[in-house]
Every structure is written in C-alpha cells, then in structure tokens.
Backbone:
C-alpha cells in the first residue's frame, strides 16, 4: 500500500508522514499526483489564496487523479481546496464540490484545540468513531457546501460546521487526524482500508 502525500510547502509533513507509516503503509512525498500511489493525501495549513496559487500549475493533474476513482483525502486547507472559493481571499479552489469556504461565526478565532465530531451519516471513513469523540482543529474558516448530503460529520464551535465531508472515495477533514490521537488514527486507518478495496 503506497500513500502519496502532496507537498506544496503548505504544511509540515512530518506528523502526517509518521502517522501513515505507523499504520503500515509506504509513503511517497509528491509535488504532483502520479500513478505510483494507491491513494493521495493533500494536507495544508495557511491561506486559501496562496494555496490556490500553488495548485494552479498542477490543477489538471489533481483533477485527473480525483476523477480516476482513487481515494483522495484533503486535510484542513486541503479540504477547503475541494470547494469553489473562500471568504479568506481571491483564488479558485478545485471545484470538486460546489460551495464556498466561510469565516466561522465565533467570538474567538482561530478555533484551535480539541472539539467533538458528530457523525450525521454512515461512512467507511468514520467506521468505529463514536459521536462526540475529540479531534484536533486549527482553523478560522470552514466549507459551506451547496449539497449538504456530502457532510459526514459536524462540529460545534459556537456554530455548527462540517468537519468531515465526502462522496464516493473523495474525503475531507477540517481537523488534523494526524494530531488527533486514537480517533485520528482510526480515521487514517479507515482511509488506508478504503484504498485497499
């Protein structure tokens, strides 16, 4: 099992690389998707506009990978890039899912620390995850999908927002599973299991 991790200079890759290796999968650090991996992870921390600029040169390769039917997981900013646009600034996301990334309606931002996730529909990504299990967040924005059927789980931080989204084998988590202890490990293990099918 070979998991590709997209490296665009938007995230420290040590934690996600270590987490995947602990679960027994091989890791390939990629500057763009290729055919040597069974699944792809797009991690990211930072600004939507900068991320949109950095994906521009590999946009078609990313969309080609996503359309190929192989599993894709966007983490934090990587999840937000699956949508059309963001309140954070100009730039186009990948437009895989319709919707806009909006600023959280909360008195204190960023939302940083541990919060519970509430699954709203079954998904192979959340198999074994119980309502209220805690995961680690670090963000001020979250997606607002046009089609709410893609929402797998929500979280409340003075307002409800989608914390896991997905359709077929394309997923996103607004939190960092690689920093989320046993719950995050369950989610990453499930993702690897999905890639093996």
Residues:
């Amino acid at each position: 099992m070979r998991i590709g991790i997209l490296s665009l200079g938007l995230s420290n890759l040590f934690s996600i690389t270590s987490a995947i290796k602990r679960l027994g999968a091989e890791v390939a650090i990629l500057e763009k998707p290729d055919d040597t991996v069974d699944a792809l992870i797009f991690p990211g921390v930072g600004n939507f506009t900068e991320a949109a600029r950095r994906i521009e040169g590999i946009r078609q390769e990313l969309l080609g990978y996503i359309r190929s039917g192989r599993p894709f997981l966007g983490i934090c900013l990587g999840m937000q890039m699956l949508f059309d646009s963001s309140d954070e600034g100009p730039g186009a996301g990948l437009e895989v899912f319709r919707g806009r990334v909006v600023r959280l309606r909360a008195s204190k931002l960023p939302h940083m620390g541990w919060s519970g996730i509430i699954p709203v529909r079954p998904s192979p990504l959340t198999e074994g995850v119980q309502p209220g299990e805690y995961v680690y967040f670090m963000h001020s924005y979250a997606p607002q999908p046009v089609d709410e059927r893609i929402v797998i789980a929500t979280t409340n931080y003075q307002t409800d927002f989608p914390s896991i989204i997905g359709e077929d084998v394309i997923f996103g988590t607004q939190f960092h599973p690689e920093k989320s202890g046993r719950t995050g490990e369950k989610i990453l293990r499930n993702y690897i299991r999905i890639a093996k099918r």
